[in-house]
Design brief:
With 394 residues, the protein is of the alpha+beta class. The chain has eleven helices and 18 strands. A hairpin with a 2-residue loop joins strand 16 and strand 17. Helix 1 packs parallel to helix 5 and helix 4 crosses helix 7.
């Protein structure tokens, strides 16, 4: 479980994002293979060392032939759906371009499938997105945090002519993601739509460098070498830690009063299958005396986004609350014990090496009791007793 922190003091772009990941150790050959899998005109990634305001960085250039192809969101979606990509790389790449399509559609007042991406859909942007998503997977990033994003000011030239900075698409992308933004020191475009979409599809929390043990760092260079600010995107990668050995988790919750109650067991099972540490219901009474339930989901930050999607798709809620909590968990292991010749699995919790809790798997207990012709409560007690007898207790 790796966490990545992106330092966006100089904004972000597709090439800066890609350069930072390569500088942090993502193999260029792996990223090139992902780009090749998309099946567009030949595109090559070339890595070189540069400096920006005295800071050493990696620049990844995308070498692509001239192309006058204008691709729609539907075109790009078809390319990615057909490409033999890793499922996680495909899903994140689709998410990036879907976000871009929504933002461009809102900016120009058209439907998302009508959006012509122009420079965003050009070969170099497709390469930036797909290669960056492959880089995140190659580095094992399961959670991302980012600083406030610097956007720049002034104007920039694009396919639609001269546009103000920050552009409407960049603002829409970062607003949808709840990202904090600032203008910054440079009268230029410091955050591009591709950079904003990559951050929005990757980052789950915005803020300072989280508490971690650092395992890798990377610095990705943009094309300009501006005065007064190093035009780089930094990434710091590591393992989350806490000072007391606890872990930081997230509780997602929603009050639901209009879901068929027969669906709740399937909802809870779906959340647990999707990686939730725990999921539970609390009966509540809402306004006007309406009976309802509060759905709560405990998870680590890395799985929070996927579990949000499960809640929204499997229930009728239209909103979620999110609370960061500190989790203290005992060491645990699964043991198999013998009860009169029948095997029963027991979940054992340990404190300083001593057993403090032993919980037999109930399905195993019921099956063993049936075969032995004994009461379930008798087998349950016997399985717990075997574990406690075999290991010193506190």
């Amino acid at each position: 479980m790796k966490v990545a922190w992106f330092d966006c003091q100089a904004g972000a772009s597709g090439d800066m994002f890609l350069g930072a990941l390569v500088d942090a150790g993502a193999p260029l050959s792996t990223l090139q293979a992902a780009v090749d899998a998309v099946g567009v005109e030949p595109v090559r990634l070339e890595q070189r060392a540069v400096t920006r305001q005295g800071i050493a960085a990696t620049r990844v250039d995308v070498q692509a032939p001239p192309s006058d192809v204008t691709r729609t969101w539907a075109d790009i979606r078809g390319l990615l759906d057909r490409a033999p990509l890793d499922d996680a790389v495909r899903a994140r790449s689709l998410d990036v371009f879907a976000r871009l399509a929504r933002a461009e559609a809102a900016a120009h007042g058209v439907g998302a499938d009508e959006v012509h991406f122009h420079e965003v859909g050009a070969l170099d942007a497709i390469a930036d997105v797909v290669a960056s998503c492959a880089g995140l997977e190659a580095l094992g990033i399961s959670e991302a945090v980012a600083s406030p994003v610097t956007l720049g000011s002034g104007t920039a030239s694009g396919a639609h002519g001269v546009v103000p900075v920050p552009g409407p698409a960049v603002l829409a992308l970062l607003a949808e993601a709840g990202a904090p933004v600032q203008s910054g020191p440079s009268a230029s475009e410091m955050c591009t739509p591709t950079g904003a979409a990559l951050l929005a599809a990757t980052v789950s929390t915005w803020g300072g460098l989280p508490l971690m043990t650092v395992t890798a760092t990377g610095v990705g260079a943009g094309s300009r070498d501006d005065e007064g600010v190093a035009n780089v995107l930094r990434v710091v990668i590591g393992d989350r830690v806490t000072m007391d050995g606890s872990t930081e988790s997230v509780v997602l919750s929603a009050n639901v009063d209009d879901l068929d109650p027969r669906l709740w067991p399937a909802v809870l099972a779906r959340l647990l299958d999707a990686g939730a540490d725990d999921a539970w219901l609390t009966p509540i009474l809402m306004k006007k005396g309406r009976p309802a339930h509060t759905l709560s989901v405990l998870t680590d930050r890395g799985r929070a986004e996927s579990l949000r999607r499960v809640v929204f798709t499997e229930t009728s809620t239209i909103g979620l609350r999110e609370q960061v909590v500190t989790k203290h968990a005992l060491a645990r292991e699964l043991r198999t014990v013998d009860v009169d010749g029948e095997s029963v699995r027991v979940k054992v919790a340990l404190l300083d090496g001593a057993v403090v809790n032993a919980t037999p798997e109930f399905d195993d207990v019921v099956a063993a009791a049936s075969r032995l012709g004994r009461p379930v409560k008798s087998v349950l007690a016997a399985a717990s007793a075997v574990v406690h007898a075999a290991t010193p207790t506190s």
